[in-house]
Amino acid sequence: MTDESSNLNAVTAGGARFGQTLTRAGHLWRSALFSGPAVLWLGLLLLLPMMLILGVSFLTRGEYGGMGLPVTLENYQRLAGFGELGFDNLYPVILLRSLLLGAGTAMLCLLAGLPLAFFVARLPGRWKNVALTLVVVPFWTNLLIRTYAWQIMLSPESWLSRAAHAVGIGVAGEPLYPGAFAVMLGMVCDFLPFMALPLYASVEKIDWTLAEAAADLGANRWRVFRHALLPQIVPGLVAGVILVFLPATGQFVIPDLLGGAKTAMLGNVIQQQFATSRDWPFGAAISTVALLLVGLGLWVYLRRGNREDTVL
Amino acid sequence: MRRSWPLNLVSALLYVFLYAPIVVVIVYSFNAARFGAGWTGFTTQWYSALWHNPAALSAARNTLLLGGFSTAIATLLGTLLAVGLCRYEFPGRRFFSRLLYVPVFIPDIVLAVALLLTYSLLRSGIGFFEPGLTTMILAHVTFQIPFVAIVVRSRLAGLDPSLEEAARDLGANELRTFWHVTLPLILPGVMAGGMLAFTLSLDDFVVSFFTSGPGSTTLPILIYSSVKRGITPDINALSTIIILASVAGTVLVAGLQRLRAPERH
Residue A118 and residue B7: Cβ atoms within 8 Å? Predict the structure, then answer.
């Protein structure tokens, strides 16, 4: 059986149940009817733009901010730090900072997501849904609004700032933003649900008898967690880390509002190239790097088999 | 399992942390103070001021138009896509199913500039594609379709096939089965997908920002420019309204997704 006809058979399992077996042509025109429009739309407005970005990244900046030939690798060289005037670590640093802040956000979300996941899993049946919905609701409100709210919360007069100053963080009279601390705070607050949900999906399926057995055998609570529980939630953990790390690294709004010039991330640089600097080829190069990162993460995410019931 | 007070306490604090930004904005929308974060008294004047703010009203109009049109298109295309991907084979179906996840993971700024670039090139090539409401609608549908398709697809996967089988056994052809049996069964999923799409459109800033033109400012774009100049209380009032709309939408979506299909017998 060829791979193609086994595909057909797999998909037509539904068709066969209807008492009809569709021919290949039958599949094709129905696909054209149902999948066609969306495929066309996404092909033109998703696939094509991504390919254009890739293509433009090899062009040169035109005189009036446009783009044109010659074809060059210069944009990528600049990204790697090898600009015209010798080595300049500006962009490698920004890239590194984005990766670090993304990873840091993922780690903090993991630390915060674990207690949440276990808390919800232990709730009685009906309350689980309520608790989960409560976790998700903030995520679906406007990120811009939630982010500028942190500006309010981190302003010098706020009690949060005063408490931090009292403990020695920051300088009295100055806001706690812009800066890396504020960016992390904003990102963790935004991405926590994205970590909590896949974690919960795994925690929900935990076989607690393994933990009981470990405890019976004399393991303390940490060892029970580390050896009997943690291995069981690895799928949710991996999903959560990917779901947080990838978007966090490419964030624009949060570093824009809470970060400032010294905490620029990939997203900010991309925005600059397309807004003020008008260096579209360079912006396209950065975007391509971001796309590659996303592609890599997507590949890892889809490979582990998306068995879990996520909010998506 | 034993009650664990440390776990409950930490979780409660985390919930507070999650909702802090929302609560702050809502609370401060009633703050009589014009500047600064100090509280000087309760007032609803900022809400009434919104009614007389032409920029806010125009932005609200644009936001709703954009949301309405894009949601309608995306729900239609996304639902059809979900059915098509689940049931009918075509060359490249697998690849395309994977592609569907790209808008979910892609940083919004990358999608935004990619569309900006595409529109610009199309403009110099074949004309049209002036930045405006139309380009924004096109952009929004693009990131909405995958979400609708994913939601409807999961609803489809949970369907009991015997219902459609029964219809066919009773003599209904494919079209009648689809229209009278399948569609009503997946309707909660379609509506959930639609609400999700609308919420996404309502909340979108980055993509809108890069694909908008003069006169097509939306509420998020308005809020962004205002925030850049310094937060004022009427922005808090506007934001509160938007937040409550999103919350209502999310709760509706959650409720719709819980609606069960008829039980198997």
Answer: yes
